[in-house]
Amino acid sequence: MINVKRVGFVLVLLAMASGPLVLAQVGYSQRAKEIGMHLKCMCRGCDMSAGGCAHPGGSFSGPCDTAKGMLKEVDQHLAKGESEQQIVDAFVAEYGSIVYVEPPKKGFGLVAWLMPIVYSIVGLGILVFVVRKWALRPPSTASAGPTPAAHSDALERARAQAARDTED
Amino acid sequence: MDVFGSFTLLLAFVCAVYAFIGGIFAIKTRHPLLVKSTRQAGIATCVLIFIATLAVEYLLFTDNFSQAYVVSHSNRDLSTFYKVAALWSGQEGSLLFWSFLLSVYIISVLIAYRNKNGELMPYVGVVLAGVQIFFLTLNNFVENPFKTLAIVNSNGLLESFTRMDGNGLNPLLQYPEMVIHPPNLYSGYTGFTIPFAFALAALLARYPGEKWIHLTRKWTMVAWCFQSLGILLGAHWAYAVLGWGGYWGWDPVENASLLPWLTGTAFLHSVMMQEKRGMMKVWNVWLVFCTFLLCILGTFLTRSGVVSSVHAFANSHIGPWFVGFLALILLTCFAAYFKNRDYLKSENMLDSMVSRESSFLFNNLLFLIACIAVLSGTLFPVFSEWFTSNRISVGAPFFNKVMIPIGLAILFLTGVGPLLAWRKTSVDSLKRNFGWPLIVGLFCAIACFFLGYKDGASLLCLFLCGFVFGTIVEEFYRGAKVIHVRTGMGMMMAAHELSMRNTRRYGGYVVHFGMVLVFIGLAGSAFNKEAQKAMNIGDSMKLGQYTLVLQSGDTKAEKNYTAQRMIVEVLKDNKQIMMLYPEKRQFQGTEQAAGTMVAIYSTLREDLYVVYAGMDPELNVPVIHAFLNPLVKWIWLGGVWVVMGTLLALMPNRRTVLGVATVPQPASAPITPALAPGVTLREGHD
To answer: What pTM, to 2 d.p., does this model score?
Structure first.
């Protein structure tokens, strides 16, 4: 059963439409939102950045009050002429390192950035080593002419096909 | 019904323990009756779990509010559809659902192979029973879904107690996709148990050859397909419901589902090395072990509250059980490996760096790096807390920066790999194979540049997408042309015939094509735009080429929630093209009381994604948040192709490729060299 209470709601909206329009609707600047993208919303409920907080499940799906407060704080810092780095540092001093959206490229945070590079280098190193080892097998097997290779290859295929035919 | 359900679960536990211990004795004694009886105990375990699951559903359907689980996750007004889903919306129920899906796989395996592979199956049965024992322990003794409510009465005695109504289902879960997303993802997670069980069993039994790979190939593909679909449905749910304009936030739970998918994908590729060339046996065994371990780790991360996440389940005491189980599996795997590793001797040999083999090696390396990078990024906050006592959070920007290069490298290999021949590829064939795809890729990149997609990584991605698409078309074209010339069939029919003759190979290409579409969609995310405005009736806001005008709003009371709906007119070049109806839903009796229903105008070019965020707390006017997300639709289309490709790969081949197939051969008879000349070697065609 759907009960549409449309009229009442529209009336409320119309009443509001006659009210003054506030231009600074959001209460914080665009620059604060940009910097807010690098700060985690500290409401502990949404796990999003302060600039991108949509607060799923909340009664308002925009920046939640915590995020808004943080963005306004960013504006206050901006008014003092602080740089982005200084602002982020001020927040870290206030909330601790949990306020970072991505790990800082200094201190222990640097480890997070170096890890993927280290795996890639180590992985690639191992791969090259293995490939060289495998490729440097006795030349008798690697280049003994096409016949035995093709022969064993064909045999393997036949074997695989036979296995497939008897199973599926 | 709750006592009945509870008892069935307990009985299932007993049967699983019997299947495990009896199975070990059956392996030792090889007594045929014992083998049979443990197998049947395995089947009985599964049936009992099915019954217990039905019992929970029955309690949910009959609104039995004397049950703690029903009270926490359902209410009278909840629609039937979501009462089904309430089973997997809480910790206890979803763990039972895990056991349920695992049992579906196990019972299928036990029945399908009841008269086959007599050497291997008792081992498989033992491993499967072992996994079941763990989950049944949780179901019975840790997170039992059949807890009844009780209060202390005036005499100081406990008495059972029935609530009038339940707390209801989390509103974020009251969305159709939430009914199908968890079953898919869980089917993926649980499905990887089967290849794991066969791999471990084969290792323990020193089972000859690569038979376990043949046996589990299709099971792995099924699990992989469910996992892929589960991940994509989850992304789509996040996109359509959470209202933040994105589909993937690198949340720990999302990452947890991606990890086994990455190693599973690596495994699906590297098995071909073992099948064709007898290489990488150790590697494959460990890939399967890791995939299963990551499935368990994923379940652990989701449910233990170790990492913070928007997903439910957090902060429970279940963590240590999973850590213990993980350690036990790891120990078993290591023990089995060190005891029987000589059996895994491989014929590793590479003829050339430029070959299909080496492309598979690189593929595996990249998938593994991707997996470790996601894993270490997800766990980094925990590490940082251990080492520095400060928790450093790792959010989406980190993962994007790390994963984009890896993703692009994988995409590049998707194009290159299939065009390289097994063993060795000549420079001539490289030129022949890569000419057209490169032209297609360049054309795509240039076209996209002029369409306004001016971002380095995205353009590279779109170039690679074009390149991979070119290679796939080329593969189909070449194969179809051969059939066309031989049989005179039309090209389309020939391509169809070709796919049917080697479903696995061409199904694989269809999956690759699906992934190309997904990557096109991902490339679009560099160009997202958004705008947010508190709007009075009649106000408008511009976003890209669209103008949104707030026409009016209304409120409707549904059974379980009240929806506030905004009616937004969408104009393009001053012409109305669409009306959108974003909603905000206020649910009754739930903790998280609000949900959004995003209105999306979706085209291949872009999605206009409109959220009614709610009333502005200060101005008390509706706030409309709109996003313009280019190319998102391609991701969902890609998902459809991935599933279709997997289904194609699962179909049996039409047996006309090799002459051998027509020669009747007993399964176990060795194939004599005399047969070999009858086999046509089709380079790069298997």
So the answer is: 0.87
